[in-house]
Amino acid sequence: MGFGSYDESEQRDVDADFDDEDAVKSGENSHKGTIEFENGASSEELLDRLQDIKADDE
């Protein structure tokens, strides 16, 4: 069987050997709070840098 081939026989009767208590709870790792980031550059400096990057790609 080649890479990316689909074999229906592999998709049948999947033996999942785990309990619900072994599963990760989606809310278990929730975080509440805020993140603040200050890079020291003004918006104008950042926009100028973006224009430089775009010009380099052309």
Walk me through the structure.
- With 58 residues, the chain is mainly alpha-helical.
- Helices cover 33% and strands 0% of the residues.
- It has two helices and no strands.
- The chain has helices at 8-11, 43-57.
- The mean pLDDT is 76.
Topology overview:
Blueprint: H1 8-11, H2 43-57
Give the strand tally.
Answer: 0
SS content category: mainly alpha
- How far the N terminus sits from the C terminus, by CA atoms, comes to 43 Å
Quote the beta fraction. under 5%
Describe the structure in brief.
With 58 residues, this protein is mainly alpha-helical. It is built from 2 helices and no strands.
Task: Jot down its keywords.
33% helix; mainly alpha; 58 residues; 2 helices
